[in-house]
């Protein structure tokens, strides 16, 4: 297993955001995590990437800092749940955060250079820059442009490209479809499929179930802070209870 | 030899003369370095030397507060620590300037750690409020150990920076130019890119594997180093290190100069000092309303140039190429790097239905332009 989350429970003060969540990602998989708003999907990724622990440290001593994290996270055979976020990224678990978060005043190229902070070898940098530009030609055309002036779809592509520049072993993408038109979503997901095909392991958090299911090899359905179901897209789509309760699809599967 | 000169000239023309902003900065520096030889008036030299010293101080504030976004309202602590350290070393131990000023700067770096470590967890206004406290605390210590610090009177009677005013001026000017160039170079380097990324989004920076705490401390130390150099120079130039070097006014002067000149640009901070500090002297012609005029000018300039004086001027004199984002002199019709036309509005590309592949169409039309 590349990533193994064991019995993870996260509470913010008295609110339980994750309740005994276990999840596995094997090398080469594209695993989807789907579920409604407030299910804990983003918290799950933020906890895996070490951001929740860091938040707790920053807010230690205040009410907002009253966060409990319980459970274990193993990545690449080592325990990572006590590590700071930059060390987790250094080990190859890279998060492409929710709402894209580009470095808004930096140019597209400088965003990518900052993403490649850990890459010390200039040749490796040039190679990954080339491959990112091949995948997202628009970023090459916009290389000198300040990233805050990009469109939403371009910013999402930049965020994914920046995460790829960090040379991940596991790429975690949080809600890439937010605020994008159906057409751009489809194009973006085609790119994510391409990334997964190239051999990179991907953990994808997504609200749009049909989009997520169209790419993923395996899925977890997260609802009310718990893992409610797990399986391949086909299995889950055939399960009547899952369709009705979590996917909002009434009626039998039309397959 | 001749080939080397030709190379230098080409570099000079290609790097400095092509841009009006750089040309102005270069000529201003050249004039400041030559003028005192032609007109060595002691009063003028004194003002200009102090301007150079404060320019380092303002640029160091801009590095930490503007460029890295760690708004420091107690920047005087670095200035004061270095001033007192140099003064005490010079007076009690009789060490020469060549040692006291660097040691003072190192003391300011330590002060950077002392301020930076407790402030790592703080952000925004909370960080600013915390930094505000440090010079006040140190001021309290200064008044507690009066036999060591001189209390209200400070430590006076230091060695002069140099035997003559002219020498003092040139020491300040050279250290000033070198320090400011160094700060400028830092913001332009890979370290600068990382620091800028931290200012933009600390979470995204951490997710990219950047240890933001470590880099914020580096920023505190670097800023402290340069502010410390300024503090040491000031102490030896004025031949006194007093509690006013730790006062709130010292901190706020750096802020006023930098915001007036243009924050987060480094050169803006320097321009701000070179306009405002001598202006305060010129305004002595009307001593009763001197500070009123000073404030009115600052308010008016910021009303019409909200990003500061220097960026406003650069915006008028230089044009950014829409394609490669290189700056060009306003007189040029096409970009000096990629040849894209600058004045004519870009040709409208037909709106294509496909957003993503539409981008390729745009780049193709730009290459044609």
Annotate the secondary structure layout.
The complex is a heterodimer of chains A (255) and B (369).
Chain A: E1 3-12, E2 15-25, E3 30-34, H1 41-48, H2 51-58, E4 67-75, E5 78-79, H3 85-90, E6 93-96, H4 108-115, H5 122-135, H6 137-141, H7 152-165, E7 170-174, H8 182-197, E8 201-206, H9 209-215, E9 218-223, E10 226-231, H10 233-238, H11 240-245
Parallel strand pairs in A: 3-8, 3-9, 6-7, 7-8
Antiparallel strand pairs in A: 1-2, 1-4, 4-5, 9-10
Helix pairs in contact in A: 4-7
Chain B: H1 2-17, H2 20-38, H3 42-67, H4 76-92, H5 97-119, H6 124-144, H7 146-149, E1 155-156, H8 165-188, H9 190-200, H10 202-207, H11 212-238, E2 240-241, H12 248-261, H13 267-282, H14 290-304, H15 309-317, E3 318-320, E4 327-329, H16 355-368
Antiparallel strand pairs in B: 1-2, 3-4
Helix pairs in contact in B: 2-8, 3-8, 3-11, 3-12, 3-13, 4-5, 4-11, 5-11, 8-9, 8-11, 12-13
Essential attributes:
heterodimer; A: 255 residues; alpha/beta; six-stranded mixed beta sheet; four-stranded antiparallel beta sheet; 11 helices; B: 369 residues; mainly alpha; ABC transporter involved in vitamin B12 uptake, BtuC; two-stranded antiparallel ribbon; 4 strands; 3% strand; globular; disordered C terminus
Sequence stretches where pLDDT stays below 50 over 5 or more residues of chain B: 353-369
Please report which band the strand proportion of chain A falls in: under 5%, 5-15%, 15-25%, 25-35%, 35-45% or over 45%. 25-35%
Using the coordinates shown, work out and report the CATH topology of chain B.
Answer: ABC transporter involved in vitamin B12 uptake, BtuC
In spatial order, strands of the major sheet of chain A run 6-7-8-3-9-10
User: CA-to-CA gap between the ends of chain B?
Assistant: 41 Å
Low-confidence stretches of chain A: none
Instruction: Write down the domain tally of chain B.
Output: 1
Into which percent range does the helicity of residues of chain A fall? 25-40%
User: What is the annotated CATH architecture of chain B?
Assistant: Orthogonal Bundle
SS element count, helices of chain A: 11
Overall geometry of chain A: globular
If strands are numbered along the chain, what order do they take across the biggest sheet of chain B?
1-2
**Given the helix and strand composition of chain B, which structural class is it?**
mainly alpha
